[in-house]
Design a protein that fits this description.
alpha+beta; two-stranded antiparallel sheet; 4 strands; about 15% strand
């Protein structure tokens, strides 16, 4: 879910032609699904117009996740987890992937410095675009020599890379 903070930039009046175009866009091209949604949508915009320049408001968005992409990613992660030699706990493996792929928030540490806190990939907290970034980041991370050496410490770099590519390529062909 995205929380977007906006600020009203201007108090300028619109011409009647500009108002008509805006109404067509806000209430014609996009509108509430049910009657109560339509009323809430109009109340929201009525409140925005009454605000003064510089006032803030926010909107929350949720663009549903594409189910097949989610299932494909979970299957890929499961396949890598099952075939690697190092990490025994599936939840720890997921956290390791999130940190390695950069899917984190950086927060202040208790003694200074910063540390990564992995973000959630739950449907409620991670929209489709953000989930795609996570998936792309995981693929890039898994292709690094560092990740491959960590997951297959007893293998040569060449064998570790080939092992990873064998797993990843089977999923990329499914796209």
């Amino acid at each position: 879910m995205s929380d977007i903070v906006l600020a009203k930039q201007s108090d300028l009046d619109l011409t009647e032609q500009q108002r008509a175009v805006l109404r067509d866009c806000l209430f014609g091209m996009v509108d509430g699904q049910a009657e109560e949604d339509k009323k809430a949508w109009r109340r929201f915009w009525n409140g925005v117009w009454k605000m003064g320049s510089g006032e803030f408001f926010s909107i929350k968005t949720l663009i549903p996740r594409y189910g097949p992409a989610h299932r494909k990613q979970m299957k890929l992660e499961g396949e890598v987890f099952k075939n690697q030699e190092r990490i025994k706990d599936r939840e720890f493996f997921r956290l390791w992937l999130k940190v390695g792929s950069g899917f984190v928030s950086w927060v202040a540490g208790p003694k200074g410095g910063v540390f990564p806190v992995p973000k959630s990939v739950s449907y409620a907290e991670c929209e489709n675009d953000e989930f795609k970034e996570y998936c792309d980041g995981v693929l890039a991370f898994l292709r690094t020599a560092h990740a491959q050496k960590y997951l297959w410490p007893s293998a040569t770099p060449f064998i570790a890379e080939q092992s990873m590519e064998l797993i990843l390529s089977s999923f990329e062909r499914q796209s």
